[in-house]
Amino acid sequence: MAFGASGPDSPRKPKAKRPRVEDPSSPGVRLIKTSRGELWFDDGNLVLAAGGTAFRVYKGILAKSSPVLADVLSEPQPEKCEGCDVLHLRGDDPVDVARVLELIFCSPDLYYDGKPVRFSVVASWIRMADKYKMHRILDHALARLRSFFSDDASQWRDALRNHASRSIKVNAEDAIAAVKLARLTGTFSLLPTALYTCSQLSSPTLLFGVFRDDTSGTVEKLAEDDIVRCLDAREALTRLNLLSTFQVWNPRVSHMCMDTVNCLATFEHQTRAIREGSVVHQYTLSATIREVIGDVYDAFILCFACEREIEKRGEKARQDVWRMLPTFFGLDMPNWMLDTQ
C-alpha cells in the first residue's frame, strides 16, 4: 500500500471539530489556539484577540470609545473570524482588555454609581485607556485613584485607615502599581502618598514586587529609582520620627495642668525611655494620636489638659511629615499644601 493511502488498517481521519473561535481553513489562522473570552456577543462584528483570548464586540461602539482604535478600524482588516474583522491587541493583558470591554459594553453605570471598585480593576482601566486614548474612561479611573491617593491629608488618612475611599478599594501593596500608573499618566499628585505607602511595605515586597490581583501572573515592581527613593525616605522618616517623639514628650506640662507632680513624672519617664531606646512612637499619617500613645494613657497618670497638650504636639508632628512628604521622595511639588484638619 502506498504511503498515505487509506485502507481498513489505516487511521481514519477524524471529523473536523468546530474550534472555539474560528475554522482552521478561514483566513484568521492565527486565532486557532485562541480561547473565547466571556465577553462574546454572537451578533458582534469585531473580534479582538489579546494574549490568547478573543472577544467579540461591536466595532462602532468600540471606535466611539477610542480614537486610536477608530483609526485602526477605519482600514480593512486582513483577518476574519466567523465573518468578523479580527484585530490583534499586541502587548495587552487579556485581563485588562476584558475589564475595559466590560466597562464599555456591560457596565456603563459604573461611571455614575458611588460603589467602590477594586484597585486592580481601576488599574486595568487606566492602562488600557492611556494606551488607546479612551479619555472618558481615563478621567473616570484617575478620579477614583485620586480619591484614595489624595493630596488632601484628612481625606487620605481616612482612606488609608479604611483601605478604601468612596470609590476604590485599595490594599497597601497596590501602592506599587499606583506609583507606576501615576508615572504612566503624568498624574504626579498621586506620587507622595503612593510612594509613602510603598515605603511602609516590607523590604522583600518593596524589592521584589507583588503579583497583580488577577490571573495574569504579572508582577508589579517599582523602578529601581523609586525603590531607592522609598528606602531613603524610610531612613529619613525614622530620624524624623525619633525627633518628633522627643518633641512630643518634652518634659513641659500644659499651662493648664491640674496635676503637675504626676504629669511631670510621666513626661520625664517617657523622655528617659526614649533616650534608652525602649520607646519610639510611630507618628504615622494614618493613625490617630490617641492610637499612637494610648498605652501611655492606660499605664500612666496624665491630667486632661496634658493629654490634650500631647495630642496637639503629636498632631503637629504628623502635619510636619505631611508638609515635607514630597521632599522625602525627591519630588519637586511647590503647590503641595498642608492640610491642618
TrEMBL record:
<dbReference type="InterPro" id="IPR011333">
    <property type="entry name" value="SKP1/BTB/POZ_sf"/>
</dbReference>
<dbReference type="InterPro" id="IPR000210">
    <property type="entry name" value="BTB/POZ_dom"/>
</dbReference>
<dbReference type="Pfam" id="PF00651">
    <property type="entry name" value="BTB"/>
</dbReference>
<feature type="region of interest" description="Disordered">
    <location>
        <begin position="1"/>
        <end position="28"/>
    </location>
</feature>
<protein>
    <recommendedName>
        <fullName>BTB domain-containing protein</fullName>
    </recommendedName>
</protein>
<feature type="domain" description="BTB">
    <location>
        <begin position="46"/>
        <end position="141"/>
    </location>
</feature>
